[in-house]
Backbone:
């Protein structure tokens, strides 16, 4: 592997991250808080970035370098993001800072804080801003703004974009990245405006908009959106978390006025079907015991279904107290996750669809052993190689889930706590069930569990392979 | 520019590679998923799976907004249909690869009726290049400009040549007075634009540009002059061979063609009654010996396997043939092959890509000075271009010594009316001159791009004033 070039690229991305820290720095200054946590971090990142990016390197860069770079950058980004938390002194230990930072960048939204509102505003802002950066991707940002990356950009973007297929809107990757970020920024601004219109102060609106855009889950309030208890806010949040968990390629099609192609997307239809079905089922389950009237039940059901399937993890009620059927539906939604090429996590609807179709094909083959059948998605043939990758992905996902659950259970909590913690971090949802449910937090877990969960988050965000390749010896050797 | 390449074979791939490097937006269309995957892995391009003859697929690839479509699928007919459909959808320019010899006579009609802007025939272009080398065997490569009035010749410097190991400025006055110029030197893959202090070394690939008659005299002085080949031995009876035989036959050269397939041999024999056609395995050294290869002036290896071509060329060289030409498609072998002493390597895809590149540059620069041709030399590490000076060209009438040219760029020859001028400090450009520029980097679109001042580097798609 061309390690020098990998480090060189890592260095250049570090420099970009230094610049992104200017935003929370400004917030801290506006509110008259100490800018030191951010200044220290920026100094460390700038020095590291400058040293690495000055490394001379040969320009040979292939898929393997791409995957390793993405993996390394995410590990470094998560660690670097923890530094402001650490320097602020508001967190109990460094492991907690790491956990919170990875939870931020991977748009998980799980927290170890018992009182979020006590944090300085700059730190609160940085938590939510890291959702926004991690949602669309640090590297997509880098390929959009660094022209010097153009030779490597396709490999980097490929390894970072979630989903089984590569998203390319226009032939050149830097331009694709620019369009993606353009759409992303515009939609985020729209959320800020709408939330302000619904009566939130500008700071709250901005912080929550970042969180919604990245489908993260951090909030500046302990009670998340229950604090506002306003149906209009609930509706804005639900609709936009839903929108941000759609394939961004669809928004581009909409911009090009190719609406017919949007509806052709089977992943979109499948996703909307799942959301509708889950909302109706949960509303039906909640209605008799819990709420007053069908509308009320639908409101809460829709909010939490969108929040979980988009893998955000906002809440207006503690769903850990809901009937078990509803909880089970939500857990299944955590598996399924959002659409590919969105800011959400989880397995992704496209993969679930491919899995279902592969299953149907296997059954068909049992009936007609000699049958030849191709799997299609959106009318296009999915090559057998792609199907195989999806199946391996799903298998790995389950293995990692089981392994993480096993380690977390060492802490001695119940099955549903251990398992839901692992699942909620791997699929980037955030809150799990019972003790670690929406109103709880992860502070009670041991440092080991927190580190394992942080690893799960980044594995889930990058869809396993970029992290696993870092652990593969053959990738590092010159073979 | 938005460019669609239909068919990602050898030509399509190498063309895409070059165009991506020049910052164009490339969409590649092919029916084979694996090919597309490889293209998508190695280059920053968009890939679309589909057929060039389907309107739906073309629309998906963006043919309604494309500036250029290059149809390089394996079938000529698909390419023609593809260009026709794309033009109807709104693609501004189309280039089709048509290589079946049967279409040659009706090419003009086809182009007009199908509204194709350019037809390329890689095999024919290769044959033309080979025939040029056979006419002037001293050269390893020849590019010709202004209808043959200026030629650029590449040759390898050998141990003991009077050129070697001393600076160019110390050459005898006899050479200095000739209308020719050493315009580039390729030393192990690094290209130098030589000045007076440059010291050529044995093993360098030198490029010299000038009047053909002067070049002849120069090679006589160098002791390297060889008359036009009279007897040529061809191995392989593919399309290139047919086109080549056609040209050489007309020139009255004696031909021997070895081809493995019997039906093919019969067909060749029908077409070229004067040629000796042998039906045998041309890679068999016994056969080559029994067919008296050593008595021929030149040997051309044209089988469809690069490896075979290289091996039998080495064999022919060992037999002492003065001119050996090898077809080698894979560019990355070029370095190794050269180190073995084989100088004349031709690659159809490389030649084709150069032709198309020339068109693309021309489209990009529709307003400035006209680029008449573009040749890539030194394995593509340098370019030689022929421009006509227009009224918009800057610094007309200013002596060259007062101008600052960008580094890596050489103004090699000026053709003014009937005169061929090798520029000196006092020379100045005038309108309607033809100038030949040598550039170490690619991306020169306009004559104004050669000056150091103002426009540092042409932005893609920009048209200099």
Residues:
């Amino acid at each position: 592997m061309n390690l020098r070039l990998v480090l060189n690229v890592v260095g250049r991305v570090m420099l970009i991250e230094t610049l992104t820290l200017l935003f929370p720095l400004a917030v801290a200054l506006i509110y008259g808080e100490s800018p030191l946590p951010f200044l220290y971090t920026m100094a460390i990142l700038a020095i590291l970035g400058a040293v690495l990016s000055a490394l001379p390197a040969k320009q040979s860069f292939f898929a393997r370098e791409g995957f390793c770079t993405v993996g390394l950058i995410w590990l470094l980004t998560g660690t670097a993001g923890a530094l402001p938390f650490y320097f602020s002194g508001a967190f109990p230990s460094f492991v907690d800072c790491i956990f919170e930072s990875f939870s931020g960048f991977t748009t998980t939204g799980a927290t170890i804080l018992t009182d979020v509102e006590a944090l300085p505003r700059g730190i609160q802002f940085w938590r939510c801003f890291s959702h926004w950066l991690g949602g669309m991707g640090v590297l997509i940002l880098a390929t959009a703004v660094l022209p010097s990356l153009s030779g490597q950009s396709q490999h980097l973007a490929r390894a970072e974009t979630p989903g089984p297929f590569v998203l390319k809107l226009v032939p050149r990757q830097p331009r694709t990245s620019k369009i993606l970020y353009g759409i992303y920024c515009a939609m985020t601004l729209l959320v800020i405006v709408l939330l302000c219109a619904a009566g939130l102060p500008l700071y709250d609106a901005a912080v929550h908009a970042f969180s919604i855009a990245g489908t993260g889950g951090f909030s500046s309030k302990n009670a998340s959106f229950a604090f506002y208890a306003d149906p209009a806010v609930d509706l804005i949040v639900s609709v936009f978390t839903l929108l941000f968990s759609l394939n961004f390629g669809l928004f581009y099609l909409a911009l090009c006025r190719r609406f017919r192609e949007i509806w052709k997307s089977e992943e979109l239809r499948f996703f909307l079907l799942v959301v509708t079905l889950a909302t109706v089922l949960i509303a039906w389950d909640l209605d008799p015991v819990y709420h007053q009237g069908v509308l009320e039940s639908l409101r809460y059901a829709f909010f939490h279904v969108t929040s979980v399937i988009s893998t955000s993890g906002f809440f207006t009620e503690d769903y850990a107290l809901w009937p078990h059927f509803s909880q089970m539906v939500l857990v299944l939604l955590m598996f399924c996750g959002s659409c590919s090429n969105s800011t959400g996590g989880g397995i992704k609807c496209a993969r679930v669809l491919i899995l279902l179709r592969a299953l149907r094909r296997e059954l068909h083959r049992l009936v007609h052993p000699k049958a030849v059948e191709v799997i299609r998605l959106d009318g296009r043939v999915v090559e057998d190689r792609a199907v195989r990758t999806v199946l391996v992905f799903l298998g790995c996902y389950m293995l990692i889930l089981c392994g993480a659950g096993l380690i977390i259970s060492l802490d001695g909590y119940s099955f549903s706590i251990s398992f839901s913690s692992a699942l909620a971090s791997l699929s980037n949802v955030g809150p799990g069930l019972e003790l670690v449910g929406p109103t709880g937090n992860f502070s009670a877990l041991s440092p080991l569990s927190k580190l394992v969960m942080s690893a799960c988050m980044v594995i889930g965000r990058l869809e396993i392979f970029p992290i696993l390749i870092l652990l593969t010896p053959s990738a590092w050797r010159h073979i | 520019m938005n460019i669609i390449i239909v068919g990602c074979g050898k030509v399509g791939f190498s063309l895409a590679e070059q165009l991506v490097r020049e910052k164009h937006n490339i969409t590649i269309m092919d029916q084979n998923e694996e090919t597309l995957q490889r293209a998508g892995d190695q280059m920053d391009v968009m890939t679309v799976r589909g057929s060039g003859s389907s309107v739906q697929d073309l629309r998906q690839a963006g043919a309604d907004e494309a500036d250029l479509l290059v149809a390089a699928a394996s079938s000529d007919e698909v390419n023609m249909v593809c260009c026709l459909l794309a033009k109807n959808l709104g693609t501004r320019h189309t280039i089709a690869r048509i290589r079946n010899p049967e279409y040659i006579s009706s090419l003009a009609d086809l182009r007009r009726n199908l509204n194709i802007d350019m037809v390329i025939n890689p095999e024919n272009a290769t044959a033309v290049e080979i025939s040029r080398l056979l006419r002037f065997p001293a050269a390893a490569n020849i590019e010709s400009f202004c209808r043959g009035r200026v030629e650029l010749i590449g040759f390898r410097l050998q141990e003991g040549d009077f050129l070697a190991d001393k600076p160019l400025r110390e050459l005898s006055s006899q050479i200095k007075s000739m209308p020719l110029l050493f315009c580039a030197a390729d030393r192990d893959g690094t290209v130098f634009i030589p000045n007076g202090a440059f010291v050529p070394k044995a093993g360098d690939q030198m490029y010299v540009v000038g009047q053909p008659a002067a070049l002849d005299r120069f090679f006589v002085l160098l002791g390297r002059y060889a008359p036009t080949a009279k007897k040529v031995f061809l191995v392989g009876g593919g399309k290139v061979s047919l086109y080549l035989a056609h040209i050489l036959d007309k020139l009255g050269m004696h031909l021997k063609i070895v081809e493995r397939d019997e039906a093919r041999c019969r067909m060749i024999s029908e077409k070229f009654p004067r040629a000796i056609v042998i039906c045998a395995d041309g890679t068999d050294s016994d056969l080559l010996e029994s067919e008296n290869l050593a008595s021929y002036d030149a040997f051309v290896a044209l089988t469809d396997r690069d490896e075979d071509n290289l091996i039998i060329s080495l064999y022919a060289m060992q037999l002492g043939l003065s001119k050996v030409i090898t077809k080698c498609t894979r560019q990355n072998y070029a370095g190794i092959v050269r180190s073995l002493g084989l100088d004349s390597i031709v690659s159809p895809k490389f030649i084709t890509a150069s032709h198309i590149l020339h068109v693309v540059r021309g489209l990009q620069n529709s307003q400035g000075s006209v680029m008449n041709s573009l040749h890539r030399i030194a394995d593509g590490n340098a370019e030689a271009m022929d421009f006509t000076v227009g009224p918009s060209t800057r610094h007309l009438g200013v002596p060259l010594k007062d101008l600052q040219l960008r580094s890596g760029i050489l103004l090699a020859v000026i053709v003014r009316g009937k005169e061929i001028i090798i520029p000196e400090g006092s020379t100045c450009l005038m309108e309607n001159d033809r100038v030949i520029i040598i550039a170490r980097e690619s991306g020169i679109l306009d004559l104004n791009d050669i000056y150091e001042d103002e426009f540092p580097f042409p932005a893609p798609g920009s048209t200099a004033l």
In short: The interface with chain B takes residues 62-63, 150, 153-154, 166, 168, 170-173, 175, 380-381, 383 of chain A (CB under 8 Å). The longest helix of chain A spans residues 63-88. Chain A has a mean pLDDT of 89.
